[in-house]
Amino acid sequence: PNGNYFIGTESFVVTDENRAEIYTDDTNDYRKIKIQFWYPAQTINGYKKALWLEDGLPVARALSKDMGLPYFVLDHEISIMSNSYVSAPLYNALELYPVIVLSHGWTGFRNLHTDFAEELASLGYIVVGINHTYGSVANAFDDQDVAYINYDALPDRASTPDFIDYANRLVNTYASDVITTLDYLEEINSSSQSRFSGKLDLSKIGLLGHSTGGGGDVAAAITDDRIKVLIGLDAWVEPVASSLIDQGLDIPSLFLRSGQWETGLNNTNLYALIENSAYPSTLYQIDGTTHFDFAMDYMYSPLIKVIGFSGSVNSNYLTSMLKSMITDFFNETLNNHSNS
Asked: Contact 32/148 with Cβ under 8 angstroms?
């Protein structure tokens, strides 16, 4: 990370008893998600470095299964270290911190965007990554409680006539997870028991989302005025309700599109959303990239380019460029200064 601050990290399980869980058969099940904070730290002395894959083997094995690989192929990932330190104290010299909420895509998980989270935290943001239960490959609440992806939530498009209904339900679930997270942030900001008490600038909330996470972010931002700025990375807005697309965004927004998504059904709603937004909305396309290049898929294996999972652009160069675009946009629109 390029910023001046050390980085701390801490995770929480959040249950929303106002929301029934629609992706299990248990009628008494409430929506439960896991969120991870990355934040500027006062010191890292005496604190343990965090693993990149915080939830460990359940996620690595679920990811291998999702990719059609032998179950053990990605086991090495559980030993990769991040640049963050577990439960390090919050840097206390700043009065308030702007907040970025981060959402992964379908079959993703929060740590696929640790690079962006750590970059922003090193620059003075508090970043909150959501693991969207049953949309992420695995969500490990504890050693005995792991919620694996529910593939029935988004069945195969070609064989499902009402695919868009399923997709809309999933995007709305992601959007509701964002809103649940904002409610939780309000709660801990006013709690004397939290290290973040009184430190979250909830007048400066931005969203950063990939794919389904980006679509959920759009739906959340149109319906919740606590959100002040948005970045979508190949944001999947095709299933967002037409009423919301027609309404458009009234906040600054930046959409980054992969070369792979230059054509396709998503663009109809994406162009309409940009056209209907009251505030100027910017779209950039990055040629030579795939949909998965917006996540840390380069962590899996050098072979991802060989098999076409990743595009032709050098991964280190692309990550550096994306970090610059993301931090510059948030600095200018949310934090009122330029870092470029």
From this structure: no
| Residue the block writes with tokens 């991802």 | 304
> CA 127, 338, 324: angle at the middle one, nearest 5?
60
Q: Encode pLDDT of 201-219 as tens digits.
A: 999 999 999 999 999 999 9
For 70-89, the DSSP string reads: -TTTTGGGGG-EEEEEETPP
Helix (H) or strand (E) segment spanning residue 103 = strand 97-103
In angstroms, the Cα distances linking 213 to 93, 104, 136, 195, 205 are 33, 5, 10, 27, 16
| pTM, two decimal places | 0.95
Using only C-alpha atoms, the chain has a radius of gyration, in whole angstroms, of 19
Of residues 267, 285, 277, the one with CA closest to residue 325: 285
Contact 56, 139 (CB under 8 A): no
Whole-Å CA distances, 65 to 33, 59, 104, 112, 149: 22, 10, 18, 17, 11
Residue appearing with tokens 């990743």: 310
Q: Give 226-264 pLDDT, tens digit per residue.
A: 999 999 999 999 999 999 999 999 999 999 999 999 999
CB 330 within 8 A of CB 122: no
Nearest to 267 by CA among 220, 244, 234: 234
**What structural domains does the chain harbor?**
6-333 (3.40.50.1820)
**192 HSE (CA, 13 A, CB side):** 0
User: d(Cα 130, Cα 278) in Å, to the nearest integer?
Assistant: 28
- Check residue 221 and report its DSSP letter: H
**Cβ-contact 90, 14 below 8 angstroms:** no
